[in-house]
Write a structure and sequence with these properties.
The protein has 198 residues and is mainly alpha-helical. It contains 9 helices and 2 strands.
């Protein structure tokens, strides 16, 4: 939100910066550039946004350090991090949210908990599956989908390493394949927690 506000206000004065991390650096550089077309009062107001951005960045770094320390000391979280697409943040979130994997009967039931299973639309003996239910823990669902997106990106570069994903990408659009991979990752995570193995 702060990045968008900074970029938006700078754009009002004709200073357009790119999106992403490079755009933040360019925005801050333009703000501190004495040669820019920014009026004094606008520069003063935007320095407040830049200060909030720096404070928020240092707070995020502090919290990430705490999460990593907890992750290193938690056996379940370390085991979950061995799954492709699950890093320390996702592993610690799953380990904290699910203290006992036996609460779920199967990996499919666990994948349904964050809403990663297809919604059934069956009638007249015909089974039809719709989009995912999106019911349940949205934070875990988002983390699993982001991790699956990273794995999918790597699989598209080298299809021989992940033949299951390559075949899925031939049949389905990328976003649907990514959610299917997130579902599979959730089921693997349940198996890792239930069996206490990597």
């Amino acid at each position: 939100m702060l990045i968008n506000a900074l970029r938006g206000h700078l754009a009002e004065y004709g200073i357009v910066t790119p999106v992403g991390a490079g755009g933040v650096t360019a925005s801050l550089k333009a703000l501190h550039d004495e040669q820019s077309k920014l009026p004094v009062h606008a520069r003063s107001a935007l320095h407040g946004i830049a200060a909030q951005l720096r404070a928020l960045s240092s707070e995020i770094d502090r919290l990430e350090t705490q999460i990593l320390a907890w992750h290193r000391n938690n056996e379940t979280s370390r085991r979950l991090a061995t799954i492709p697409g699950i890093g320390p943040i996702t592993a610690s979130a799953i380990a904290a949210a699910v203290p006992d994997a036996s609460l779920f009967r199967s990996g499919r039931q666990f994948a349904a908990w964050p809403g990663l299973t297809p919604r059934p639309h069956s009638s007249g003996g015909k089974e039809r599956l719709g989009g995912i239910t999106k019911q349940g823990d949205g934070y875990l669902r988002r983390l699993l989908v982001v991790g699956a997106t990273a794995v999918m990106r790597m699989a598209r570069k080298d299809a021989s390493r992940q033949p299951w994903m390559a075949q899925l990408l031939e049949r389905k659009p990328t976003k649907i394949a990514t959610v299917a991979l997130a579902n599979k990752t959730a089921q693997i995570a349940w198996a890792v927690m239930a069996r206490k193995e990597v």
